[in-house]
Write a structure and sequence with these properties.
four-stranded mixed beta sheet, 19 helices, disordered N terminus, two-stranded antiparallel ribbon, alpha+beta
Length: 529
């Protein structure tokens, strides 16, 4: 009987949607697969490699922009850089919102996360009164500008650079004895962002500051895949927890607790260290020491800073490990690229030391390798969906308010008119000038991997730094060899491989061997003091 009530509610909603769609005057939309009444294209959404499916559809319909309708929600897939620039960049005042998720915004309460904020006072980072002290002068800026000032601009500081180098060297030490390279890369990724943000160094996979972001990112991935009916039909949130078949309330409560732990856990630990005078230099400790020394700081300003730090922590914990997995995969599958990168590092370091950030300009081929990692398979093939905040028209097509705008970054980064031939292959030389040991004239196109318009990732400079220093250390100290899949089958560059169909897209699990190529003593003695 209870299930029939839910069925009746859904049937009533379907009838309303059907009547509304029949009563609306038809306006031209881009081509796309023909959908079902009411449900639209819900069953057409690809389950595997959706980025490639959407690109194939674009060729099939001879259109750079496609239209789908999922349960009454208009979706526009943008398959070319021209369409993306025209809409998400040149009309960013219209297309900088995010789609609303009942699960995330209401049940879990993650509206403080910058990727999910819209153009309101929170995203803008406004406070009720202008700050007085210099330490708080950034609180009148937008959240994204605050993030860049604290992480991208300060990423050049000695303290932050040292955190990244030390995390890389701790990784080299663990790889001496560990056979779980995926686990060690995962630990290193969280090590970097926790060290920079909070001065905290996790030492094992069970540390709550590692498990918390992983658990909440699993929920985010389910939301991105459309895994919660309450996002398609928000009225279901009013169903009581005891209602048969209702599980999203339980997930929401678990996610809310995880979000609070994410926001407050490391912050409280650093605050305690600051009070005891034991905190190491980090974004959090520098801020909290300034507050302790009498900076005029409101609670709203402290909340804003706490939010920005948690944003960095969560974002780095997921995307950085994916980028490192992609790097390891590429080096194992393309050994000639690995050898070439190792040679330029060996020529520079002469077997006497490990890399430093001061070496960056001396090894442009390694910078090209990093760019190719970001291009070859972007960590977020669709970035995060944009949403339109008003009705609009483009090339005669109608784009209604609230439409999902899905930028196919993967397709753009495989565009041969931008990146040259064989874009399915890993070729760092595409970022070099005449295949010489000199950078090409313009490497900025790979920034497309970090999103578009006002919603481009504010942490992209720090992400590049981390990937570069990790790659430099790994290639200096180890050969990455003998790639095999989960069943033990040998892999080559021509082997079929399937990346996960998710907001953050991971490569398939594979096993490789890390063979030491420098004296063990150089690795053991390398940690900075």
């Amino acid at each position: 009987m209870a299930f029939s009530l839910l069925d009746s509610c859904l049937a009533a909603l379907a009838l309303v949607l059907l009547l509304a769609s029949l009563s609306r005057k038809k306006r031209p939309v881009p081509p796309g697969p023909r959908g079902l009444p009411v449900l639209g294209n819900l069953f057409d959404i690809p389950k595997k490699e959706s980025w490639q499916v959407y690109l194939d559809w674009g060729k099939q319909y001879n259109s750079e922009i496609l239209y789908m309708n999922a349960g009454g929600k208009p979706m526009f897939i943008l398959n070319s850089i021209k369409v993306i620039q025209d809409l998400l960049v040149r009309r960013s005042n219209i297309y900088s919102d995010r789609p609303r998720s009942t699960m995330l915004d209401e049940l879990i309460g993650t509206s403080w996360l910058m990727p999910f904020m819209n153009k309101d006072n929170k995203w803008k980072g406004r406070v009720n009164h202008p700050p007085q002290a210099s330490v708080c002068s950034f609180f009148g800026l937008e959240h994204r500008q605050l993030f860049r000032r604290e992480f991208d601009n300060l990423a050049g500081s000695t303290a932050n650079k040292n955190h990244e180098v030390q995390a890389a060297r701790r990784l080299l030490q663990r790889l001496l004895t560990s056979s779980d390279h995926e686990g060690e890369l995962r630990l290193a990724s969280v090590d970097v962002i926790l060290s920079i943000t909070y001065g905290i160094t996790p030492t094992n996979f069970e540390h709550p500051f590692i498990t918390t972001p992983e658990q909440i990112n699993e929920i985010f991935a389910d939301v991105a895949r459309g895994g919660y009916l309450v996002d398609a039909f928000p009225f279901l949130k009013y169903l009581p927890k005891w209602f048969p078949g209702v599980k999203f309330h339980e997930t929401g409560e678990r996610g809310k607790a995880l979000a609070i732990d994410l926001l407050m856990g490391p912050y409280k630990e650093v605050k305690s260290q600051v009070e005891n005078g034991t905190a190491v230099s980090s974004v959090a400790s520098r801020f909290l020491y300034a507050v302790q020394e009498g900076a005029d700081t409101s609670e709203g300003e402290i909340d804003a800073m706490r939010s920005v730090m948690a944003n960095a922590y969560l974002g780095g914990a997921d995307t950085t490990v994916c980028a490192l997995y992609n790097f390891t995969t590429a080096m194992a599958l393309y050994p000639h690229v690995q050898k070439k990168a190792q040679k330029v590092l060996d020529d520079l370091l002469s077997g006497q030391r490990l890399p430093e950030f001061s070496d960056f300009g001396s090894v442009p081929y390694l910078a090209a390798v990093v760019n190719e990692v970001l291009r070859w398979h972007p960590v977020t093939p669709f970035a995060i969906y944009h949403a339109s905040n008003q009705d609009d028209t483009y090339n005669g097509y109608f784009i209604p308010k609230g439409s999902y705008m899905i930028a196919n970054s993967w397709a753009i980064l495989r565009d041969e008119s931008i990146f040259g031939p064989d874009t399915d292959k890993f070729i760092p030389e595409r970022f070099m000038k005449d295949d010489a040991n000199a950078p090409g004239p313009d490497l900025s196109d790979v920034d497309l991997a970090f999103g578009f318009g006002r919603r481009a990732c504010p942490g992209r400079l720090m992400a590049r730094d981390t990937l570069w220093v990790m790659a430099a250390h790994i290639l200096t100290a180890y050969d990455i060899t003998d790639p095999v899949d989960k069943d033990g089958n040998k892999l080559t560059a021509d082997s079929p491989m399937e990346w996960s169909n998710a907001m953050v897209s991971f490569p398939p699990h594979l096993r490789v061997t890390f063979k030491r190529r420098i004296p063990e003593s150089m690795i053991q003695d390398a940690l900075l003091t």
